[in-house]
């Protein structure tokens, strides 16, 4: 009986020791990888912001803002439910003199043909669409996947408070040409851009162009 008890205690101590060592090793791995992962995420954010504000010196996340007509889901996020668009993080685009010259705004539409379409939209403090970068897309090859070639170039330095798309050739500055055969993708893209414009309209008066 004592032999069985001693054996059971020994096995329990071995398991405890293994658990402690495993926990220590896991903690060490987390400690060693935490900083590289954080740096990688920061680099990814900077890269996406640079895609829409290539000449700016730096970017800083906007701490807080309120969006009229949006339903808050979490800090710095909101749903534009009627169009299925989620607004993500917003970053100040900062010039060399420290002034805020615009905003890089993450927006995601769940209404793409193949799934989510996530964009980074750059909008100046004057409300001009500096540019758009596609962060995530999984549309049909040869159709919706042409968004980067067909839609993105049309957004460069576009001065419009709201954009629409046309299938018959644009006739006004606030129109863009749709992707032929990809109306769903084009609609999701336009909804994302318009949501970003809505966000900039809310932020610009509140921020007053200051960091």
Secondary structure topology:
Layout: H1 2-52, E1 58-61, E2 71-74, E3 77-80, E4 85-94, E5 100-109, E6 117-124, E7 128-136, H2 147-150, E8 158-159, E9 164-166, E10 175-177, H3 183-207
Parallel strand pairs: 9-10
Antiparallel strand pairs: 1-4, 2-3, 3-4, 4-5, 5-6, 6-7, 7-8
Give descriptors for this structure.
two-stranded parallel sheet, 38% helix, 211 residues, elongated, 10 strands, alpha+beta, disordered C terminus, 3 helices, eight-stranded antiparallel beta sheet
Structure characterization notes:
By secondary structure, this protein is an alpha+beta fold. The chain has one domain (58-207). Helix content is 38%, strand content 27%. It has helices at residues 2-52, 147-150, 183-207; strands spanning 58-61, 71-74, 77-80, 85-94, 100-109, 117-124, 128-136, 158-159, 164-166, 175-177. The strands form two sheets. Strands 1, 2, 3, 4, 5, 6, 7 and 8 form an eight-stranded antiparallel beta sheet that branches. Strands 9-10 form a two-stranded parallel ribbon. A hairpin with a 4-residue loop joins β3 and β4. Mean pLDDT is 81; it is low at 70-77 and 207-211.
Specify the number of helices. 3
In total, the number of strands is 10
Based on CA atoms alone, the radius of gyration comes out at: 24 Å
Order of helices and strands: HEEEEEEEHEEEH
The major beta sheet can be summarized as: 8 strands, antiparallel
Mean pLDDT: 81
Stretches with pLDDT under 50, minimum 5 residues:
70-77, 207-211
Instruction: Provide the structure class.
Output: alpha+beta
Shape: elongated
Percent of residues in β-strands: 25-35%
Distance between the termini: 74 Å
**Count of all domains:** 1
Q: Helical percent range?
A: 25-40%
Please identify the oligomeric state: single chain
